[in-house]
Structure formats: structure tokens, C-alpha cells
């Protein structure tokens, strides 16, 4: 046999003294294995079938290898299923593993045949060889076929208690696998308890895998308290930590990070036992240890010696991470970026290690640059600037741009260095390298905004480069400068006029800026520029299709034509200075990210909910509160963050006008699950995907495509499609900028709406978070979340459409099914097949919606809060109220209680009024306040209510009656009462008590009562 | 956790694809190929998010390894795992190349089945793996052998098997240092640090308990700046301050933390015991002084002087200086006083080799580089000159399982200066 002889020969050539047995067969089989990748002839499947059924063992094995090779390159070899499974019963372990691999891939598509394999699995689980037992249980867990999982339970139970640790550690992971397939089964079979027992196992690797499995299962049951971490279990974990593999240490540390110590002493003792991990060669162990320490440090009193020691101990390992492989350096740098924002003191002396090295990959260079700016201070600014100047002459364009921008940020951050920064920037402008010049102009504009009236002498130099600017941002920046300092630039009108020639070819950013700049110029030099301003106003309002531009144009026009003095006050108002720190992460997000050190969330700088589907990762992690000495540790709102006075975050790019338009690019974390913002370079691909959606919807936002359709009723028409744009336009005049705008973490889109609505809408009306209406899984990748709000008298349905599929979605259309209040979208729509009629048990405020795109039509239903339907003219005359109240038969009355409301009657009345529930009269009887209220629904039905408030008793009683004024026309009659009450602590409860009539033929008197209580936490 | 692992060749063809989680579909394989391997612009991050799926990749020569996930995994762990996977493959079949991977795909699948379970990395020490992933089957083993394997794979000392015997117990220790120096164009040293690696080759019998002592000269500055090193400075001793060090997983970290002693049971064969980093009092063993003059557009004159800056009694060996040349170099003429120099077009560099050089000496090379005229406006990035050499020293390491003393200053290093 020649094959064996070659093998022997090769073996004798190789000298591997330690493991003579594993004589590299791979060398021996050189001429055999790679050929499997090349066979592509027709009739292959047929041939393989024959080979698989061959009597010769070798031939069988070769055939299975060919099958696996085909499977790897993506060919469909599922037709061979029975033939491959037939090879399973073999004593050749290599062959067995190959067959298992095949099974794992195709069992799901051939569930009936997969059952054939069960017997072998069950038999293998009893094998005397622990390796085979483990292999069987490991593979069985990977076969996602319901019928098989039933058979898996018994073998798994045995394996969890196997005498061999290798089998136990494999079985522990298998529980997680089974839970992923059938969670209920795992619970019913009591596997979770067995898994918990394994935390006390004598073998550290079994402990580590059990911890990993439990952590994963616990993630999908946020409130189960599955891990049940207490000082005893923590102690066990810490002991296992010293003994298990590097990977096991990571599992344990990641689990430890979820624990909240009872007091600072416990926190310190855990820290002491975790710090040795900082010297581990595995960077992931180090980062996970850093996470635990960063988190538990929050609980240590700052005056404690140990606190200082710990801070000092953290720096060296973080620096050492920078000598790791570049990919790890990248992960480390993204994390260091978070750590320096949270605790700048740790690395404040280590600036030099972040200097860019020649051979760093570009992604490392860019991250280092970011951290350099974060660490820049008066003490090291000279060094930093010298470095940045070098970087600005490098080859990579992105890096150079970022370096130039960094110089500007230094100027804004360290006031003493501003002058040097400006002169450095001027030097760079002299290089005439196009992108350097443009970038420099953009940052100089920011410097002007930080230090007004200081560096205007450089404007002349900037103007020299006017012609070379071809990027919108640079052009807009230059135009802003010209407009802002128009009185000092003699030929400002000429300069601006030159831009005006190609007005329609400019990007929106430039057009808006040009419009504003010319208006500023006109207000400053009215005599010479009248013609110019008229020209730009007509360009903006008559010849443009862009609603933003049009609206801004109209506003200026009206302002100028009605009251030039007011216009001056508005347009030339003093602007707030931009803040020092430009792109700080919003504090609550930062806290959450610190809890995720080392993970993807910390790499993306986004909460897990932004990129993880389903229930996993939706829990928001928080840092524990700083305990001091005995304060309540478990308080949900940690004081630590608040006391450290985080600088307000104002985006500095662009002036405020620009900000307003760009706002939705900044990540939002305020309400509910934040929409996945798609900025940032890692998300580039996603951006592309959503781009298609975006353009179709026809909105200007670059962020998550958001569609604002406005369903309106017969009584309240009106299109609200232009509302976001209106919001922008109102904000355009700096004077109307509300103060809340500076608040950290203001949600982009919401703010925009708030601004727009601020004119006609009472503040404080309910503003619930968006809920997911249509999960992506049900709609081929289209996720729809939304909320109903009532603003300025119009019902709006705000939806966020997210494309989670891999392809572009187009041709969107929306349609509502017939519903109780006749809601219909105001925007254009397409007729679709009607949905099945309302079912009687559904609440009346259930809305069935169909959304269509190029892929399919998707149906979903959502409930709108009934309070949306209350119209503004719902205040009934007193006399009418009295008369009506008496007229209504008792049958129509219903009563219920609102529990735990600590408002007094006046406050409650005010709150209710903001939701269009009006108080008509109030009287006090025996210490009880009686509020008589009225509200009117969009279809003309009046609802009257009596609210009894007893001083000192937090429970209210409401009795309400409804009256059908237009019952002749309405085929549906209803009695609804709805009261929304705000609690003092900003939580609010919305209570409906509604009865519904399921068919038009029914008459008054047959009611079904349904109580829906929704509790929202107001963020 | 890791949802799947793919290996591609440079063309983007899949060589290995192993899916661990149900949320990863076959389309993920193509998504990575289209968006990363075939991307029009080079991808600028090792982590890519495509339609809510995250891809981690590393490249070895022209082979791509990609780990895929849809969850919030520990990113550092995924990369560490990918490197480990490379190490394991190298230990089994040598260089990671398309041919080797294709030839060993069955073995790779077997390994992937073993070291990653449901996306959770398991014991991946080659020492342990080689005892039972042999491509030979494990039927013939006795029960004792089997349980020995499993106890090793899951045991506290997963990196070493029992019953190793050598006739001669030997232990080799290499200290590899690289000096990273950043100099301004004016010749001012901006930052310098030495990162060192202690690499051991141990051929010892049984389960030897090793202890690695550091001599008094070494101060580990774990407490940040100042502190301990100041004290050592005051006591008048010439100290070597180490900023930080990390250890192989065989070292008992808690013991190091409390007693400052490095105790461990070593893996068999070659491994990296520790890494350290130091920034203080770095004495550069060599100075490299480059002079570059552009003569017209098609010619460069380069002169490089190296000066040895250590005790005359020491001898540096196998010195290799690598001087990068522009991409459009058409020809090079070299004159050197000592050693041999050659232009290597494939590496875009002049390689100058000197057999040995004593301390406090100097040597120089001059070269004329002819350039082809190009239209390429992109300027030459002027990569740094690099230098490698060895300084052998008689180790103060005694045979047997007890080690004492580590008197390392500079041994083998690389010296970099910007041109």
C-alpha cells in the first residue's frame, strides 16, 4: 500500500519528539484533500450517492469529505441526507464527526429524516469513552429539530451529572443550546436548577461554562434572577477565576460585572481579588477585569486609600494593551475612549503612548487621534500640537482631515493654545492642499464661534481660498463667516453674490446658509443689498422644491416685510458660545457603555439595543451608585453621575441652524429603545441600506428613516407632512431657540417636533415612547415602531421604519383598515385589500395598518391612546353640562378608581387640561373635591366625567357618562372614558375604561367592559 | 457569542464555514465577501456591521478569518480567539495558506468543533488538543488514557499533559526586545519605550514547578508614576523600572500580585512566558543617522550612519539594517565599508547585513537610488529604517526547575527611526 509507505516516510522525516502519534497525516494526504474543492462536474450528486453507499470504508469516508467540501463552498447537498446519515454508525471517529457536521447543517431542512440519527446519539451518550459521550451531547444540541430535542432530555440529564468533567462542561453549554430551541422545555425539565448546581462544581472549567450558559439564559429573562448572585456564589466564582482557562476567566469576569455588591467593603474585596487579572496575557481577560473594576469603583468612597491605588493600577495595563495586535489595539482604544471620558485621571499622564506610529493601521491612527484630543490639556498642548501638525502632512486623506479638525478642537478646548492653533491652521492653509484648506476653514468657523471678535484678522486669508472650496461643509462654513462678519468685509456682497449664481446646484446645507448669510448682510448693510436679498428670497421660495429652504425663506420674508427691527433682533441675535468638549458621549449612555467594556457595544459606542435584535441586550445596564458609607446602593438613579457635572453637549459643527437640521444625527437615548442611528464608520454599510428607504420616504433626515404620516379624522383634516420642516424653520431664527435645546442627550427627532409644536401645543402633554408595532421577523426585515401623539390639534402617527434586511425596500404605501374613529392617513396612499373585520374582543382604539413595499404587504395592528382623539373644543357650557348629565340614563354610567395618585385636584385638573380634558365645574362636598369634566371625541361624541378626589387619599374615583350627539350618522356608539393623570414623579398612568359595541346592529345597552391600564415611564 | 466562523481565500471564496448559532444564515458568508473582501474602498475597521450582523476579521497573509455574530459579544475575546485559532492551525500544519487549509479542512472542522462550542471558546491549548485531535481516531486508547485526556483538557493545568519524560532536562530562555522610538525631524526623542518578550523553550520531565525570580534591579512600577521607582533611585542602585508586565496563563497571577514571584508549571515546548514594557532610562544600543538628498526628480542619495552605543566589551551580532526605497526605484548602487548590502526589489528595501560589531564603533553606507519618472502625485510615505541585531549573553539561568535572576538589559531588538 503506497499510501501508508509515504506516510511512514514522512513521519521519519519529521522530528516531533513529544507527540509521535499525531504524525501529520495532513501532509500525507496532500494530494487528496484539496481536490475536493475543485470537483464541479455535472452529475456529481449522483456519483456521490453511489460512493456513499459503497462497501469500502475508505471510499465512504472520501465521499463524505467531498460532501462536506461542497457544503462549505455553498452547494446544496441536502439531497444526500439519507445516504450520509447511513454512514453515521461507524467506529471511525473522524468519519463520525464529519457526518455530525453534515447533520448540524441539514437536519433542519430534513426533520423527518434527522430522526434516523437519534438512536445513534442516544447510544453514543452511553459510550464508555467520555470524548464520545461529550461529542454526542454537543452535536445533539446543535440539531434544531423539535422531535430530536425530546430525545435529548434524558441523555442531557445524565451528562450533566456525568463523572467526567469534560462531559459535564459540554452538557452545561448544551443546556443553553436547548434553551435557545425550546426555553419552556428547559424550564419544565428542571435543567436550570442542575445548571445552577454546576456553579459549585469542583472543576473550574465546568463552573465557567455553567456561568456562561446561565448568563446567556438570564439575558433572555431579564427579571428571572436566574443567576442569583450572592456573596457565596461570588466567592465560588472568584475561586474558579484563579484556576480556569483564559476563556473561562472571561466568562466569569463578564458575569461578575453584573453583580452589585452590598457595600463598599464587599466591593473592595472583590476588586482586590480581580486586580491580579490585569497582568494576564489575554487582552480580553484584562478588559473584562477593567470593566469589573470600573464598575465596582463607583461604590468606593473617593477618600479611601484603596480608591487611589486602584486608579493607579488601571493605567499600566491599559497602556500595555496598545502593544497588542492591531485589531485588539482598536478594541482597546475604543474602550479607552470611554474610560477617559468617565475617569480622565487614569490616563492623564500617558499622552505620549497615544502618539501615532508610522506603521499603525489607519483605524488605530484615527482612534489614537481621538484620545489625544480627549487628553489634551494646558500641560501637554505644545506636544500635542506639534504632533498634530506632523499628522496634517501625512498621506492618508481621512487621517489628515481628522488631524486638522483636531487642531481646531484643541483651540476650543484649551483657550491658551487658541492663538497657536489658529496660526498652525493658517500655515496649513498656505500649503494649498485642497482638502486641508477646506477642513481648516470648517474648524476656523468653530473657533470664531468660541472666541468671537478675536481672530477676525484671518478672514482675508480665508477669502483668498474661496474658489478652491468644493465641499458643501466648507462652502457653508465660509458663507457663514462672510455673513456673520459682513460689516467688516468690504466686498461681502460680491462674495455672496458669486455663490448665488449656481444656487440651485448647491447642496441644501449651502443653500440654507447662503439664504441666512444674505439676510444677515441685508440687515447690516440694507442700502446696497436690497436687490441681492430679494433675489435670494425668490430663489428660495419660488424656485425651490425643498420645503426646508422654502419655509425658511418665507419666514425671513415675512419677518423682513413686517418688522425689520424684530427681524434684526431675531436674525442677528447673540449666539451662545459653543462648548469646549464637542463630541462627548451623553452621560447616561456613557454609564451604560462602561458596563459593556470589552464588548461590541463599547466598540460601536452604541447601546446593545441599537444593534442586537430581539430580547437580548435590551436591558439597560447602569453603574452602581457611589455608596459613600451606607447610602442606599440599589437606588435606580445613581448620584455619582449627577454630581460630576458633565459638560453640556452642544454639537459644534455648523452654526445653530445647521445643528437644527443635523440634529437627528446625534445618538438619542432619551425615549424608549433608541432608534438605530447610522452615523459612525462601522455602520457605513447599514447606512447604505437605509439610504434607499430614506430617499423614498422623501424626508431630509439622514438618520433612521422616519415617516410621519398624519392620520386625520373627518372633522380634523390637515396634512402634517411638512411639520418637521416647519420645526426647523421656526428654529431657524436664533432667538426662538429654546433653552432645553442645550440639555444633554436631547433626542434629535423629538426635539425637532417639540420645536415645531411648541407654538401651538401646551407643554407637558403626554409623550409616550415608541413601541414596536411590527417586529422585523414578521415582515421580512421591515421593523415598524411608532407612537400616536396629538400636536397642535392634529393627530399624528409617528413611525420609524427600520430596514433590517439585507436589501433595499422601495415602493412604500400605507393604508388603515376601517376603524371606530375613522382614522385615515392624510398622506398619499394606495388602495389595498381590506383586512379582516374587527374582532369583537379587540379594544376600539385598535388600528389595523397595512404597509406595503416592494417585497410584500405587511399587516400589523397598534393601539392608539384614546386621549389622542380628544379635540380642543371639548369644553362644554356649564348649563349644557348640567342638563346633559341629568339626561343620561344610569345604564350609560360606569365607575372606576385610579389608584395611587398624589396630585391635588387643581394639579390634576391642569394636567388633564393639557390632554384636552376640561374641568367644567368643581365643588367640595365633605372634604371631597368633585371635578366635573367634559371631553369631546373627534367623531363628535361627548364624554362627561365626575372625578372625586379626597384629600389625603391617593385613590380617585371617576364616574363617567357618554352621550351620542350624532348617533344617527355613527354606526358605532360607544362610551369611553379616559383619564390620564400624571404622578408627581413624572410617571404617568393612562387608564381607559371602555366598552365597545361589536356590530352596527347592536343597540345601546349591550356593553362589554374592558379595562386597559397602561403605565409608561416618562423619560 | 460567536455565531459563525468563516475562512476565505484572497478571492473571497469560502474555504471553511462553520455556523454555531441559528441567527447566522448562509447569506452572512456572502455579505462579508461583498462588503469587506470585495469592497471598493478598503475597509477601515476590523469590526464591520452589515445589516445588524457584526463581522470581526483578521488577515493572515492572504487568508481572511471572519467571526460573525448578531449579539453583543465580548469583542476583545473574539479577536483573541481568532489569533488563537491562527496559532492552533499553525501548530498543526504550519503556515496558514490556502493550500494548507484546503488540505486540512477536515482537521480544521474537527478543531472548530472542539475549541468553540455554541460560540463559546473552550480549551485551545495546542498541547492539550494534540493529545486527542489527531486525525487518527481515539478508539485504541485505554480507559485510563481517555480519562487522562479529559482531565487534562478540563483540568487546572490544561496546557501540559502528564507523563512527559526527557533524558536531559533543558530550558532555553530568549529575551526579545523591541525598542520603539519616536523622533521629531529635528532629532528630538518624542517617546521611547521598550516592549520585551520572554520566550521559553522548556523540555522538562514530569510536572515541574518553576519559579522565576527577578533580581533586585527590577522594580515593577505598578503604582503608577513616582512611588516605588523613586525609592529605588534614592537607594543608589541602578534599577530597571518596568511599567507593566503580562504573563502566560500558566503563571499564578494572584501569587505574583502578592509575592512578586513568578511561579508556574510550564507548557512543554516553546511559549511566551511574559511580556513587559518599560519607558524609563532607555539607553539606545544604536544610533541611526540617515541623510537623504533628492537630486532632481529621478535620483535619491541616501547615506546612513550607524553608531553602536554600548560597552566596547559587548559584541552585537547578525546586524541587519533595512532601508526602505521608493516604489518607483529602477536601480540602486550601494557602497558600504563594512558588511554586505543588497537592494531587494521585491521588498522595496536595501538590506545591509553586518556580522558583528563591537560597542562604541561606527559604520556607514551610502547609496544612489535611481527613480523612474511617475505621474503618481501621491508622495512617498518615507517609512522608517528598521534594524535587528542580537547580543548574546551568558544567561544566569541554572538548569533544572528553579530559575533565578533575570539580568536583561538589551538582547535582541529592533531600532526604528523615521527617515
From TrEMBL, chain A:
Q: Which family does it belong to?
A: Belongs to the adaptor complexes large subunit family.
Keywords noted in UniProt:
Acetylation, Membrane, Protein transport, Transport
A GO-annotated cellular component: clathrin adaptor complex
Chief subcellular location: membrane
Q: Where is this region: Disordered?
A: 611-683
Q: Which PANTHER family match?
A: ADAPTOR COMPLEX SUBUNIT BETA FAMILY MEMBER
Q: Which organism is it from?
A: Gasterosteus aculeatus aculeatus
* UniProt topology in membrane: Peripheral membrane protein
For this protein, the record's SUPFAM superfamilies field holds: ARM repeat, Clathrin adaptor appendage domain, Subdomain of clathrin and coatomer appendage domain
Q: Where in the cell is it found?
A: Endomembrane system
Q: Which GO terms describe its biological process?
A: detection of mechanical stimulus involved in sensory perception; endocytosis; hair cell differentiation; inner ear development; intracellular protein transport; neuromast development; regulation of protein localization to plasma membrane
Ranges of Low complexity composition bias in the record = 654-671
Where in this chain does the record put each Clathrin adaptor alpha/beta/gamma-adaptin appendage Ig-like subdomain domain? 766-861
Question: Ranges for the Beta-adaptin appendage C-terminal subdomain domain?
Answer: 870-980
What protein am I looking at?
Adaptor related protein complex 1 subunit beta 1
Pfam families per UniProt = Adaptin_N (PF01602), Alpha_adaptinC2 (PF02883), B2-adapt-app_C (PF09066)
UniProtKB/TrEMBL annotation, chain B:
PROSITE patterns noted in UniProt = CLAT_ADAPTOR_M_1, CLAT_ADAPTOR_M_2, MHD
A GO cellular component term found in this entry reads: clathrin-coated pit
Q: Which domain of life is it from?
A: Eukaryota
Q: Which UniProt keywords are present, listed alphabetically?
A: Cell membrane, Coated pit, Endocytosis, Lipid-binding, Membrane, Protein transport, Transport
Q: Which residues form the MHD domain?
A: 168-419
Location in the cell reads:
Cell membrane; Membrane, Coated pit
Q: Which Pfam families match?
A: Adap_comp_sub, Clat_adaptor_s
**Residues binding a 1,2-diacyl-sn-glycero-3-phospho-(1D-myo-inositol-3,4,5-trisphosphate), per UniProt:** 340, 342, 344, 353, 355
* Keyword Transport on entry: yes
* GO BP annotation list: endocytosis; intracellular protein transport; Wnt signaling pathway
| GO MF assignments | lipid binding
Q: How does it sit in the membrane?
A: Peripheral membrane protein
Q: Whom does it interact with, and what assembly results?
A: Adaptor protein complex 2 (AP-2) is a heterotetramer composed of two large adaptins (alpha-type subunit and beta-type subunit), a medium adaptin (mu-type subunit) and a small adaptin (sigma-type subunit).
Family note = Belongs to the adaptor complexes medium subunit family.
Its function, per the record, reads: Component of the adaptor complexes which link clathrin to receptors in coated vesicles. Clathrin-associated protein complexes are believed to interact with the cytoplasmic tails of membrane proteins, leading to their selection and concentration. AP50 is a subunit of the plasma membrane adaptor. The complex binds polyphosphoinositide-containing lipids.
Name of the protein = MHD domain-containing protein
According to its UniProt entry, this protein's organism is: Gasterosteus aculeatus aculeatus
Amino acid at each position: 500500500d503506497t499510501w501508508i509507505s509515504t506516510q511512514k516516510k514522512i513521519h521519519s522525516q519529521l522530528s516531533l519528539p513529544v507527540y509521535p502519534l499525531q504524525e501529520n497525516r495532513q501532509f500525507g494526504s496532500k494530494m487528496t484533500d484539496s481536490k475536493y474543492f475543485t470537483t464541479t462536474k455535472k452529475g456529481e450528486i449522483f456519483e456521490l450517492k453511489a460512493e456513499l453507499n459503497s462497501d469500502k470504508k475508505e471510499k465512504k469516508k472520501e465521499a463524505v469529505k467531498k460532501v462536506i467540501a461542497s457544503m462549505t463552498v455553498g452547494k446544496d447537498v441536502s439531497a444526500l441526507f439519507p445516504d450520509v446519515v447511513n454512514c453515521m454508525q461507524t467506529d471511525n471517529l473522524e468519519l463520525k464527526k464529519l457526518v455530525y457536521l453534515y447533520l448540524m447543517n441539514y437536519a433542519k431542512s430534513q426533520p423527518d429524516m434527522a430522526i434516523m440519527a437519534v438512536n445513534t446519539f442516544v447510544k453514543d451518550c452511553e459510550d464508555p469513552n467520555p470524548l464520545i459521550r461529550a461529542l454526542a451531547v454537543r452535536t445533539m444540541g446543535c440539531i434544531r429539530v423539535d422531535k430530536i430535542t425530546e430525545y435529548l432530555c434524558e441523555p442531557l440529564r445524565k451528562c450533566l451529572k456525568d463523572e467526567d468533567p469534560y462531559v459535564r462542561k459540554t452538557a452545561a453549554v448544551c443546556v443553553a443550546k436547548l434553551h435557545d430551541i425550546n426555553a419552556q422545555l428547559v424550564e419544565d425539565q428542571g435543567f436550570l436548577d442542575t445548571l445552577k448546581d454546576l456553579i459549585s462544581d469542583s472543576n473550574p472549567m465546568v463552573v465557567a461554562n455553567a456561568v456562561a450558559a446561565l448568563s446567556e439564559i438570564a439575558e433572555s429573562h431579564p427579571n428571572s434572577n436566574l443567576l442569583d448572585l450572592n456573596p457565596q456564589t461570588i466567592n465560588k466564582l472568584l475561586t474558579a477565576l484563579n484556576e480556569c482557562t483564559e476563556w473561562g476567566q472571561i466568562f466569569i469576569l463578564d458575569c461578575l460585572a453584573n453583580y452589585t455588591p452590598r457595600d463598599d467593603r464587599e466591593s473592595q474585596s472583590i476588586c482586590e481579588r480581580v486586580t491580579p487579572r490585569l497582568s494576564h496575557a489575554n487582552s480580553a481577560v484584562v478588559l473584562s477585569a477593567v470593566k469589573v473594576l470600573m464598575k465596582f469603583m463607583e461604590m468606593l468612597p473617593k477618600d479611601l486609600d484603596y480608591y487611589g491605588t486602584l486608579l493607579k493600577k488601571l493605567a499600566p495595563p491599559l497602556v500595555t494593551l496598545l502593544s497588542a495586535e492591531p485589531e485588539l489595539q482598536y478594541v482597546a482604544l475604543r474602550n479607552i475612549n470611554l474610560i477617559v471620558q468617565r475617569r480622565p485621571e487614569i490616563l492623564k499622564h500617558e499622552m505620549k503612548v497615544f502618539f501615532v506610529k508610522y506603521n499603525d493601521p489607519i483605524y488605530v491612527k484615527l482612534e489614537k487621534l481621538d484620545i489625544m484630543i480627549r487628553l489634551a490639556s494646558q500641560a501637554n498642548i505644545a506636544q500635542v500640537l506639534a504632533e498634530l501638525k506632523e499628522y496634517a502632512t501625512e498621506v492618508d486623506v481621512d487621517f489628515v482631515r481628522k488631524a486638522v479638525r483636531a487642531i481646531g478642537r484643541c483651540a476650543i478646548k484649551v483657550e491658551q493654545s487658541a492663538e497657536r492653533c489658529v496660526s498652525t491652521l493658517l500655515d496649513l492653509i498656505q500649503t494649498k492642499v485642497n482638502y486641508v484648506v477646506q477642513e481648516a476653514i470648517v474648524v476656523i468657523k468653530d473657533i470664531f464661534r468660541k472666541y468671537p471678535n478675536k481672530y477676525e484678522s484671518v478672514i482675508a486669508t480665508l477669502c483668498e481660498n474661496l474658489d478652491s472650496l468644493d465641499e458643501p461643509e466648507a462652502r457653508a462654513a465660509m458663507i457663514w463667516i462672510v455673513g456673520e462678519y459682513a460689516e467688516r468685509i468690504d466686498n461681502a456682497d460680491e462674495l455672496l453674490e458669486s455663490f448665488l449664481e449656481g444656487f440651485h446646484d448647491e447642496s441644501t446645507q449651502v443653500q440654507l446658509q447662503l439664504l441666512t448669510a444674505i439676510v444677515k448682510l441685508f440687515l447690516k448693510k440694507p442700502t446696497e443689498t436690497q436687490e441681492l436679498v430679494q433675489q435670494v428670497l425668490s430663489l428660495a421660495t419660488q424656485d425651490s422644491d425643498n420645503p426646508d429652504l422654502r419655509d425658511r425663506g418665507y419666514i425671513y420674508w415675512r419677518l423682513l416685510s413686517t418688522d425689520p427691527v424684530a427681524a434684526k433682533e431675531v436674525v442677528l441675535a447673540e449666539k451662545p458660545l459653543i462648548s469646549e468638549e464637542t463630541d462627548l458621549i451623553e452621560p447616561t449612555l456613557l454609564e451604560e457603555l462602561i458596563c459593556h467594556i470589552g464588548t461590541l457595544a463599547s466598540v460601536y459606542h452604541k447601546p446593545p439595543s441599537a444593534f442586537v435584535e430581539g430580547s437580548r441586550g435590551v436591558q439597560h445596564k447602569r453603574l452602581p451608585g457611589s455608596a459613600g458609607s451606607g447610602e442606599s446602593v440599589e437606588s435606580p438613579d445613581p448620584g455619582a453621575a449627577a454630581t460630576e457635572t458633565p459638560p453640556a453637549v452642544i454639537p459644534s459643527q455648523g452654526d445653530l441652524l445647521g445643528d437644527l437640521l443635523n440634529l437627528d444625527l446625534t445618538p438619542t437615548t432619551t425615549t424608549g429603545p433608541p432608534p438605530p442611528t447610522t452615523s459612525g464608520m462601522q455602520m457605513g454599510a447599514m447606512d447604505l441600506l437605509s439610504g434607499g428607504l430614506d430617499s423614498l420616504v422623501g424626508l431630509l433626515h439622514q438618520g433612521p428613516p422616519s415617516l410621519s404620516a398624519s392620520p386625520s379624522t373627518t372633522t380634523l383634516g390637515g396634512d402634517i407632512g411638512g411639520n418637521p420642516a416647519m420645526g426647523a424653520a421656526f428654529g431657524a431664527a436664533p432667538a426662538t431657540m429654546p433653552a432645553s435645546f442645550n440639555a444633554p442627550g436631547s433626542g434629535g427627532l423629538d426635539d425637532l417636533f417639540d420645536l415645531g409644536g411648541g407654538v401651538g401645543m401646551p407643554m407637558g402633554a403626554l409623550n409616550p415612547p415608541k413601541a414596536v408595532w411590527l417586529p422585523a421577523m414578521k415582515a421580512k426585515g421591515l421593523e415598524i415602531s411608532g407612537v400616536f401623539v396629538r400636536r397642535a390639534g392634529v393627530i399624528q402617527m409617528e413611525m420609524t421604519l427600520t430596514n433590517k434586511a439585507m436589501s433595499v425596500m422601495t415602493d412604500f404605501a400605507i393604508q388603515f383598515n376601517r376603524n371606530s374613529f375613522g382614522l385615515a392617513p392624510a398622506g398619499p396612499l394606495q388602495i389595498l385589500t381590506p383586512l379582516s373585520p374587527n374582532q369583537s374582543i379587540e379594544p376600539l382604539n385598535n388600528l389595523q395598518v397595512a404597509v406595503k413595499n416592494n417585497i410584500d404587504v405587511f399587516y400589523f395592528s397598534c393601539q392608539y391612546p384614546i386621549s389622542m382623539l380628544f379635540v380642543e373644543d371639548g369644553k362644554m357650557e356649564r348649563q349644557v353640562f348640567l342638563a346633559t348629565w341629568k339626561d343620561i340614563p344610569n345604564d350609560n354610567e360606569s365607575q372606576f378608581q385610579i389608584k395611587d395618585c398624589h396630585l391635588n385636584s387643581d394639579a390634576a385638573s391642569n394636567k388633564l387640561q393639557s390632554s384636552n380634558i376640561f374641568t367644567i365645574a368643581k365643588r367640595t362636598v365633605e372634604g371631597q373635591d368633585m371635578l366635573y369634566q367634559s371631553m369631546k371625541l373627534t367623531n363628535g361624541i361627548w364624554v362627561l366625567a365626575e372625578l372625586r378626589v379626597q384629600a389625603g387619599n391617593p385613590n380617585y374615583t371617576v364616574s363617567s357618562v357618554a352621550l351620542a350627539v350624532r348617533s344617527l350618522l355613527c354606526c358605532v356608539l360607544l362610551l369611553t372614558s379616559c383619564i390620564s393623570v400624571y404622578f408627581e414623579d413624572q410617571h404617568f398612568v393612562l387608564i381607559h375604561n371602555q366598552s365597545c359595541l361589536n356590530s352596527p346592529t347592536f343597540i345601546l345597552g349591550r356593553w362589554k367592559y374592558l379595562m386597559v391600564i397602561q403605565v409608561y415611564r416618562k423619560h | 457569542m460567536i455565531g459563525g466562523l468563516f475562512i476565505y481565500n484572497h478571492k473571497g471564496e469560502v474555504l471553511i464555514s462553520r455556523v454555531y448559532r441559528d441567527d447566522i444564515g448562509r447569506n452572512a458568508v456572502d455579505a462579508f465577501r461583498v462588503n469587506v473582501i470585495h469592497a471598493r474602498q478598503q475597509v477601515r475597521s476590523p469590526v464591520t456591521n452589515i445589516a445588524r450582523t457584526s463581522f470581526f476579521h483578521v488577515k493572515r497573509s492572504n487568508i481572511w478569518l471572519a467571526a460573525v455574530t448578531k449579539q453583543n459579544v465580548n469583542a476583545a475575546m473574539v479577536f483573541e480567539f481568532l489569533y488563537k485559532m491562527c496559532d492552533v492551525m499553525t501548530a498543526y500544519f504550519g503556515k496558514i495558506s490556502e493550500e494548507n487549509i484546503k488540505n486540512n479542512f477536515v482537521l480544521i472542522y474537527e478543531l472548530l468543533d472542539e475549541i468553540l462550542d455554541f460560540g463559546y471558546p473552550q480549551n485551545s491549548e495546542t498541547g492539550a488538543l494534540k493529545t486527542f485531535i489527531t486525525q487518527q481516531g481515539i478508539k485504541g486508547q485505554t480507559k485510563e488514557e481517555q480519562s487522562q485526556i479529559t482531565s487534562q483538557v478540563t483540568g487546572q493545568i490544561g496546557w501540559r499533559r502528564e507523563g512527559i519524560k526527557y533524558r536531559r532536562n533543558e530550558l532555553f530562555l530568549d529575551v526579545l526586545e523591541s525598542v520603539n522610538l519616536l523622533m521629531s525631524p529635528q532629532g528630538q526623542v518624542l517617546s521611547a519605550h521598550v516592549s520585551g518578550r520572554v520566550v521559553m523553550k522548556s523540555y522538562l520531565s514530569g510536572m515541574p514547578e518553576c519559579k522565576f525570580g527577578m533580581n533586585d534591579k527590577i522594580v515593577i512600577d505598578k503604582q503608577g508614576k513616582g512611588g516605588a521607582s523613586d525609592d529605588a533611585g534614592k537607594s543608589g542602585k541602578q534599577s530597571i523600572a518596568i511599567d507593566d508586565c503580562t504573563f502566560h496563563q500558566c503563571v499564578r497571577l494572584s501569587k505574583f500580585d502578592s509575592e512578586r514571584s513568578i511561579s508556574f508549571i510550564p507548557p512543554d515546548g516553546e511559549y511566551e512566558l511574559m511580556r513587559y514594557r518599560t519607558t524609563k532610562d532607555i539607553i539606545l544600543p544604536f544610533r541611526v543617522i540617515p541623510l537623504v538628498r533628492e537630486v532632481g526628480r529621478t535620483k535619491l542619495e541616501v547615506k546612513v550612519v550607524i553608531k553602536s552605543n554600548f560597552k566596547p566589551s559587548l559584541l552585537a551580532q547578525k546586524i541587519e539594517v533595512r532601508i526602505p526605497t521608493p516604489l518607483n526605484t529602477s536601480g540602486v548602487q550601494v557602497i558600504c565599508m563594512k558588511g554586505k548590502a543588497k537592494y531587494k526589489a521585491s521588498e522595496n528595501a536595501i538590506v545591509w547585513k553586518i556580522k558583528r560589531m563591537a560597542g562604541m564603533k561606527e559604520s556607514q553606507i551610502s547609496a544612489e537610488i535611481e527613480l523612474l519618472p511617475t505621474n503618481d502625485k501621491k508622495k512617498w510615505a518615507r517609512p522608517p529604517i528598521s534594524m535587528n541585531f542580537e547580543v548574546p549573553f551568558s544567561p544566569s539561568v541554572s538548569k533544572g526547575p528553579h530559575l533565578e535572576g533575570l539580568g536583561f538589559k538589551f538582547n535582541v531588538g529592533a531600532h526604528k527611526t523615521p527617515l
